[in-house]
Specification:
The chain has about 190 residues and is α+β, with helices and mostly antiparallel strands. The chain has four helices and 13 strands. A hairpin with a 2-residue loop joins strand 12 and strand 13. The structure holds 5-phospho-D-arabinohydroxamic acid and zinc ion. The site of 5-phospho-D-arabinohydroxamic acid has 14 residues, from strand 3, strand 10 and strand 11. Zinc ion binds next to strand 11.
């Protein structure tokens, strides 16, 4: 594979995540079960390029996140901290319309950063990050990170992100997960 050629990367994804690979990622469990019953669509692919390892080296990955929703929640990536917590990452939007959801490990504070073509988003160290496709086309982006960053999925898998990005009135809204769940099943 020619690692200089983005379209070549896109044509050879190293990882494919279907809806069934994302249990617990979406807030609305009922909608998740219903969506799975209707099929098991491809949600995203990641094509990681790791030219060299060791101090000073960089790895990068092209992500392609499909448009879609589970209930009101937009399609998303699993999300992770870097195993090396201090490792930051630079995201570059290439196609489509989406956001990066960031959550600070210490404070739990959330931020939604636009991920759109020709925009760069910075993910500081010690920050959980997840990509969300809020548009109607595929969201294509590049992530560039230290070769030693690694992925820690466990911490977020246990409790998930505190905020969700859901469709409301035709737009994308950032909402507290607990409030969103309460709005789904209001007490009589
Ligand atoms: C990205 C992510 C990519 C897929 O390359 O790995 O968006 O998301 P998950 O890894 O959470 O499934 C990155 O942030 N690398 O560090
Ligand atoms: Zn990352």
């Amino acid at each position: 594979m020619d690692s200089w050629n983005l379209s070549a990367i896109e044509n050879a994804p190293s990882l494919r995540r279907h809806l069934s690979d994302l249990p617990g990622a979406f807030a609305d469990q009922r909608a998740y079960a219903a969506a799975l019953k209707a099929g098991d669509p491809l949600v995203y692919t990641v094509s990681a390029i790791e030219p060299a390892s060791g101090e000073g080296q960089l790895h990068y990955a092209l992500g392609v996140l499909m448009p879609g929703k589970v209930g009101a929640e937009f399609f998303l990536t699993r999300g992770h901290f870097h195993a090396w917590r201090a490792a930051a990452e630079v995201y570059v939007g290439l196609r489509g319309e989406g956001s990066l959801l960031l959550e600070d490990e210490q404070t739990g504070a959330s931020r939604l950063v636009p991920l759109v073509p020709n925009q760069v988003a910075y993910v500081p160290g010690h920050t959980a990050h997840r990509t969300i496709n809020t548009g109607r086309e595929r969201l294509v982006y590049l992530g560039i990170y230290p070769a030693g960053a690694g992925h820690d999925y466990g911490a977020m898998a246990e409790r998930n992100f505190r905020q969700v990005v859901v469709e409301q009135g035709g737009g994308a809204v950032l909402m507290d997960r607990v409030s969103f769940l309460k709005s789904l099943h209001p007490k009589p």
